[in-house]
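pls design
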């Protein structure tokens, strides 16, 4: 099945389907081969959460629906953003640390990624590249930071390659499907999904900001009111004196 693209060529639908089905089968198999006690430490456990999966799907749709002439620039900008995210992640942590609840919720990387990807995707295709290209840099950086923060294996060597491979598979498969499906219903569906991304970004981020932190606070130490030469040690000294007299 081949569907005409706006650029005048045609794209087959089967590569996207094969990539989506094949990659999904590999992930499912790797999940089923693990023992039940190891599910928490599964490297892809955090990648397949809604907070990280939704912006990845949106990114794939955005790239797949971009005009062919800007596609190479979009990929370069996205990769540059990913590299910047790895290099300057500490600066991002410092900027987001004063935000209430940010540090306890992956520095709001997920909601920020939803907004950065949803904003250009919700626009019409004629003006979408003008906003998409500059926003791909911070979007790639935030997605890279989210990948680093989502390490459930405590820095296992297999985590980062597995997570990056899964994210590339999700984005590439979705981009191929979006590039092949150029009907009006697909365009409308993409913009509806973009509006969901924006709403989820605001609601999810707002919920994190408004949530009360229920961290355990140690009780205060009792105030010391004793005075004298050995203030605070009188009880201990008395016990030692009594023990010496008993001997």
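designed seq:
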């Amino acid at each position: 099945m081949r569907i005409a693209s706006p650029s005048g060529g045609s794209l087959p639908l089967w590569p996207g389907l094969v990539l989506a089905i094949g990659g999904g089968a590999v992930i499912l198999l790797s999940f089923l081969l693990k023992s039940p006690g190891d599910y928490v430490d599964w490297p892809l456990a955090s990648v397949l959460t809604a907070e990280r999966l939704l912006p990845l799907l949106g990114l794939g749709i955005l790239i797949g629906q971009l005009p062919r002439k800007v596609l190479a620039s979009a990929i370069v900008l996205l990769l540059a953003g990913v590299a910047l995210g790895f290099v300057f992640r500490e600066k991002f942590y410092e900027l987001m640390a004063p935000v209430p609840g940010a540090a306890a919720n992956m520095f709001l990387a997920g909601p920020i990624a939803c907004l950065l990807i949803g904003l250009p995707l919700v626009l019409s295709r004629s003006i979408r590249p003008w906003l998409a290209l500059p926003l791909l840099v911070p979007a790639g950086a935030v997605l890279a930071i989210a990948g680093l923060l989502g390490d459930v294996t405590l820095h296992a060597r297999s985590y980062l390659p597995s997570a990056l491979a899964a994210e590339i598979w999700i984005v590439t498969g979705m981009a191929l499907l979006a590039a092949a499906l150029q009907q009006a219903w697909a365009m409308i569906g993409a913009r509806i999904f973009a509006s969901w991304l924006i709403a989820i970004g605001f609601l999810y981020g707002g919920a994190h900001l408004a949530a009360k932190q229920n961290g355990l606070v140690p009780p205060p130490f009792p105030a010391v009111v004793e005075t004298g030469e050995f203030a605070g040690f009188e009880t201990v000294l008395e016990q030692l004196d009594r023990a010496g007299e008993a001997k």
